[in-house]
Automatic annotation (TrEMBL):
Primary localization class, coarse: cytoplasm
Record's protein name: FGD2 protein
SMART domains in the cross-refs: FYVE, PH
Alphabetical GO biological process terms: cytoskeleton organization; filopodium assembly
Record's GO cellular component terms: cytoplasm; cytoskeleton
Keyword Cell membrane among record annotations: no
The FYVE-type domain, residue ranges: 43-103
Protein keywords: Cytoplasm, Cytoskeleton, Guanine-nucleotide releasing factor, Metal-binding, Phosphoprotein, Repeat, Zinc, Zinc-finger
Subcellular location: Cytoplasm, Cytoskeleton
Organism: Rhynochetos jubatus
Tree of life domain: Eukaryota
Length: 239
């Protein structure tokens, strides 16, 4: 029972609602697991397993859904079966955390016991308490191509910019320490709202969806680059 209690406390499944930042996905409460069908996290909102953080690929690591909590997980992390009350107590594929909670069987391999690395902060977790979060495109060095990502400046880590491939990912693929960077405005080109982070030879070029969003990101990044960590200090309320 102690092992189950520790597992429950560590597991974001039972302590943090998957906010569904763009889709409004509700999370089940602990007492509802197995009793009510979850709303599945959509495949296109994640690029990696929401448990082990390994990237998905179409050949050896495919997407599966835990029938208890609705998370998108890989085959290894969902290689468990538990009886679910909402499905007539028939065995269903579930993730390791839900398996432990629903059956009381403790799995010896405990991936959650590892310390979180600097990039291993879930997008939903940090976006829920962020100074600013949203979708930006990060251009490549040629300035012609790039990838769209979910970008977050957390309240508890306001001097670092985290970039996720998708808004439900549990691990960032890039972090940028903002302190000391210069924020540069760029002329609008091809109807794109461009700005840069620059320090020495390191330059990141971003594209915002609107001019207003561009200005908000520039203000937020400039504050962090200057070492300002308290919201509202030295700027207007909507920044």
């Amino acid at each position: 029972q102690d092992a189950i209690d520790r597992k429950e406390k560590r597991s974001e499944t039972f302590k943090t609602a998957v906010r569904g930042l763009e889709m409004g996905i509700p999370a089940l409460k602990t007492e509802e697991l197995g009793r009510r069908a979850p709303q599945w996290v959509r495949d296109n909102l994640v690029t990696m397993c929401m448990r082990c953080r390994e990237p998905f690929n179409p050949i050896v690591r495919r997407r599966h859904h835990c029938r208890a909590c609705g998370y998108v997980v890989c085959a290894r992390c969902s290689d468990y079966r538990a009886e679910l009350q909402y499905d007539g107590n028939r065995p269903n594929r579930v993730c390791q955390e839900c398996y432990t909670f629903l059956t009381g069987h403790v799995v010896l391999e405990d991936r959650e016991g590892k310390h979180k690395g600097i990039l291993e902060k879930g997008a939903a977790e940090v976006s829920d308490k962020s100074l600013l979060c949203g979708s930006l495109q990060l251009l490549d060095k040629s300035g012609k191509g790039g990838t769209r990502g979910w970008v977050v400046i957390p309240q508890d880590d306001p001097l670092v910019l985290y970039i996720y491939a998708a808004p439900q990912d549990v691990r960032a693929h890039t972090s940028i320490p903002l302190l000391g960077y210069q924020v540069r405005d760029l002329p609008q080109g091809d109807s794109r709202h461009l700005f840069q982070l620059a320090q020495s030879r390191q330059v990141y070029t971003f594209v915002a969806d609107t001019e207003e969003l561009k200005r908000r990101w520039m203000r937020a990044m400039a504050r962090s680059a200057a070492g300002i960590t308290h919201p509202g200090e030295g700027e207007d309320a909507d920044s």
